[in-house]
Amino acid sequence: MIKNIKQVPTASQKLKQFRSDCFDIRIMHCLMNGYRTCQITAYDDEFVQNLKQYHILGTTVFAIINDFKPDEDCNEVGHCLERSFLMFLCNHDSVWVYGNNQNLAIKHGKQNSTHAWVEVGNFVYDPTTIQRYPKKLYYNMLKINHVKKLTYGNYQQNGVDENLITMLKKYIRTIKPCIEKRIKKQKNNNEISFDY
Questions:
Q1: In a domain, 2, yes or no
Q2: Phi, psi (deg, nearest 5) at residue 91
Q3: Are the C-beta atoms of residues 41 and 132 closer than 8 Å to each other?
Q4: Total of domains in the chain
Q5: In the predicted model, what is the mean pLDDT of residues 155-183?
Q6: Distance CA 81, CA 171 (A)
Q7: Is residue 5, in this structure, part of any structural domain at all?
Q8: Could you give phi then psi for residue 116, rounded to 5 degrees?
Q9: What is the mean pLDDT of residues 156-160?
């Protein structure tokens, strides 16, 4: 009886892994250079204060954003959409931006290559790394393409388009209360619950 037969990766799988590794090395080089030259920094105080002043269902957006530290858990596909949209709502002079990230396309496929962030002036606030980047460095580093932008004024006037709504509904979890759970709890306890 044959035990533990290891599958040998195909040539296309090896190529995909090689491309992913090369892209990771390039990004790491850009990041290290950005940190060394102090171009990449933590969020500035004004941006953080705006997050602290905006509340969703009684919770500050800062607490929601701060809950997602830059670790492996926050790198799941879609978390950037949720956090960047909340950040956008807090900063009325910001622009909510989403586009295709070449690294995500290599790792997760083109259908999961969308990445979202917030721009204020010439800076990008990335919700996944919790870092502020110069816009030019960020776009070059991640090889961003097919960019779409939403200003706060356009959001107030027109809302968001149907494709974007579908995408947001798929990924936003933080501000969606679990309705069934709330109703059941209210019936049992006769009290209002804000469980998510």
A1: no
A2: -120, 95
A3: yes
A4: 1
A5: 59
A6: 7
A7: no
A8: -130, 150
A9: 71
